[in-house]
Design a protein that fits this description.
- The protein is of the alpha/beta class and 598 residues long.
- The longest helix has 19 residues, at 486-504.
- The chain folds into two domains: 8-68 and 90-175 and 210-324 and 535-597, FAD/NAD(P)-binding domain (3-Layer(bba) Sandwich), CATH 3.50.50; 327-458 and 483-530, Glucose Oxidase, domain 3, CATH 3.30.560.
- Strand 15 (299-300), helix 8 and strand 16 (314-315) form a beta-alpha-beta unit.
- The strands form six sheets. Strands 1, 2, 3, 11, 12, 13, 14 and 26 form an eight-stranded mixed beta sheet that branches. Strands 9, 18, 19, 20, 21, 24 and 25 form a seven-stranded antiparallel beta sheet that branches.
- Belongs to the GMC oxidoreductase family.
- It comes from Lentinula aciculospora.
- This is Alcohol oxidase.
- FAD binds at residue 247.
């Protein structure tokens, strides 16, 4: 993996050198959005830009959702009362490139209807499908897939140049090899009510498709913000990236009616530094740490800040609220002997693993590049209209019993509409060709498994992310409040039932010996012990009108400030049926155009 040489300062002398500059723009966070934004600003302007990143320049490889200190912050949620007080792991990338370096590499776009719904929140300025499509295309270079690799495909994956980008720096490709369970899975899913989608990037992602991934087909390696956008910053004197430095506070000039951000405080070890910005300060710290930094700087719910010993300078009660993520619950099945080829064979058969490793090293293909199969589905594909109407009735009753913000009321109206009309996927179903470790059901060494995971995409839960104390080195409190609606329970149960139904249909059923997870019929206990999130957190500094409780306007400026912008997933106002990295890149590229035009 090529990692370019750039101006990275991390020694004692170098940190003083970094702080000695006055930058035009300071960016806190060199993750997915931050590096992308800096690269595009460099292309468009002569600005001197300083980027402060807490992590290092490392090679994460193909590891997905790892929680090792070298790559991740190691966050956990607060205890979740609805699931017996479990604390859920919440990996967030701590490196140049951020979470694009540890995600599952899934490259999925949201639907047109979901993006167009943002106008309901009192914003314009091209924050819709048509406006964001150009940026989604600009970031990607889609390599057309094999026309015969996916069952039922009429055209090669990624064929549509009207909606696919062909010249961007993030390399996108499709599976070049399939396990022995993937084709049977698709055929059985069609028997269970699923549909095929030959062009999921055109604004409608409903159905089963050969999923794209951010993998460079020339190397078989992860393509992410570091490999895509850092090379353009190589040895450029106007871009300085400081590593292993933790931003602790935004500095403001409080003398004007609207706050003016003038710099940042940051720490390296036990030393504190201050650096100044002439034009703008931009937060790109992600859905967890962006609200944390705002609150540490005195922007947020004044009552909460005062309780933490922080002087409020701007009372925005919705900072850190509106936290949303997808949910997940897995199933797994033991395969008959002799089993079809799966990823388990890499562990069970040393000679096969060596052969596949050589194939990967020489040709950059084979099982070491194999990735999951994705699909998105409205509930109408699997349950009756009467059941959907009953679910809507129960959900509306629970909504009416709660004290909601104006933003939440609008969000729930949209979610009810999507549920009723079936225009947005409610369940993501993904096939993982192998076993999943650490599930309750017993697994046998040397055996092969297939796993099917369901991911509810539009849960009604609204959580929060807030500071735990005034100490910037303390991890924030992440509370997803994951199961506080009957709807969430229902869709999780439906997902498990659907996965079992798929597994019971031929030809996949012919390969399966027995269900290993769930190990019994107590689905409620099983969900409580295995539920997790999909690590697509959004919404904690929502893009919405100030009247609705938004934190940033449609120029991404924090309300009440002159020059403090937020550019990351935290601005996404409502969740969508997608993996969010496509949208985060697009937000960063659009933000660069907004900054230059202003």
């Amino acid at each position: 993996l090529y990692l370019p040489e750039i101006s990275c300062y991390k020694s004692d002398i170098a940190t003083s050198y970094f702080a000695s500059f006055q930058y035009d723009i300071l960016i806190t966070g060199g993750g997915t959005a931050g590096i992308t934004l800096a690269s595009r600003l460099f292309e468009l302007s002569p600005y001197k830009i300083g980027i402060i990143e807490a992590g290092e320049l490392v090679n994460p490889g193909q590891n997905s959702l790892v929680d090792t200190p070298a790559l991740s912050w190691g966050f956990n949620t607060s205890p979740q009362a609805q699931i017996s007080g479990r604390n859920l792991s919440y990996p967030r990338g701590k490196m140049v490139g951020g979470s694009s370096g540890i995600n599952s590499m899934a490259w999925v776009r949201p639907t047109r209807n979901e993006l167009d719904s943002w106008s309901s929140f009192g914003i314009s300025n091209g924050w819709d499908w048509q406006g964001l499509l150009a940026y989604m295309k600009r970031t990607e270079n889609v390599t057309i897939g094999n026309s015969s690799s996916f069952p039922g495909s009429k055209y090669p994956s990624g064929y549509d140049s009207l909606v696919e980008g062909r010249a961007g720096p993030v390399q996108i490709s499709y599976n070049n090899v399939f396990s022995g369970v993937q084709v049977p899975f698709v055929e059985s899913f069609l028997q269970a009510g699923g549909i095929l989608n030959g062009n999921p990037d055109n604004g409608n992602n409903i159905g089963i498709f050969n999923g794209a991934h951010s993998v460079d087909p020339e190397t078989g390696n992860r393509s992410y913000a570091t490999t895509a956008y850092l090379p353009t910053l190589q040895q450029n004197p106007n871009i300085v990236l400081l590593l292993k430095a933790m931003v602790t506070r935004i500095i403001f000039d409080e003398t004007s009616p609207n706050l003016k951000a003038t710099g940042l405080k940051y720490v390296i070890g036990n030393d504190t530094y201050t650096v100044s910005a002439k034009r703008e300060v931009i937060i790109s710290a992600g859905s967890v740490q962006t609200p944390q930094l705002l609150e540490l700087s005195g922007i947020g719910n004044a009552s909460l800040l005062q309780a933490m010993g922080i002087r409020p300078i701007l009372d925005i009660p919705t900072v850190g609220e509106n936290f949303q993520d997808h949910l997940s619950v897995p199933t797994s099945f033991l395969l008959h002997d002799p089993p079809p080829s799966t990823l388990d064979e890499l562990n069970n058969n040393a000679s096969f693993a060596e052969q596949q490793l050589q194939q990967y090293l020489v040709n950059h293909t084979g099982f070491y590049t194999m990735l999951p199969t994705y699909s998105y589905h409205p509930l109408q594909q699997f349950i009756s209209d009467a059941d959907i109407n009953e679910l809507i009735s129960v959900t509306q009753r629970e909504i009416s019993e709660r004290k909601l913000s104006r933003l939440q009321k609008l969000q729930y109206e949209l979610q009810i509409e999507w549920l009723q009309t079936g225009i947005a996927g409610q369940l993501e179903i993904a096939l993982f060709p192998g076993g999943i470790p650490d599930l309750p059901g017993a697994t046998v060494a040397g055996k092969s498994y297939v796993s099917i995971v369901s991911f509810p995409q539009h849960p009604f839960s609204r959580g929060s992310v807030h500071i735990a104390s005034y100490n910037p080195l303390d991890a924030p409190i992440i509370d997803p409040d994951i199961l506080n609606f009957t709807f969430n329970h229902y869709v999780l149960n439906l997902g498990l039932t659907l996965c079992s139904r798929i597994a019971s249909e031929a030809p996949l059923s012919n390969l399966i010996k027995v269900t290993t997870n769930p190990p019994n019929n107590d689905l409620s206990s099983y969900i409580s012990s295995t539920i997790n999130m999909e690590y697509n957190g959004i919404g904690t500094t929502a893009l919405a009108s100030q009247e609705l409780g938004g934190v940033v306007n449609d120029n991404l400026l924090v309300y009440g400030t002159l020059n403090l912008r937020i550019v990351d997933a935290s601005i996404i106002p409502i969740h969508m049926a997608t993996h969010i990295q496509t949208l985060v890149y697009a937000v960063a590229l659009k933000a660069a155009d907004i900054i230059i035009s202003s």
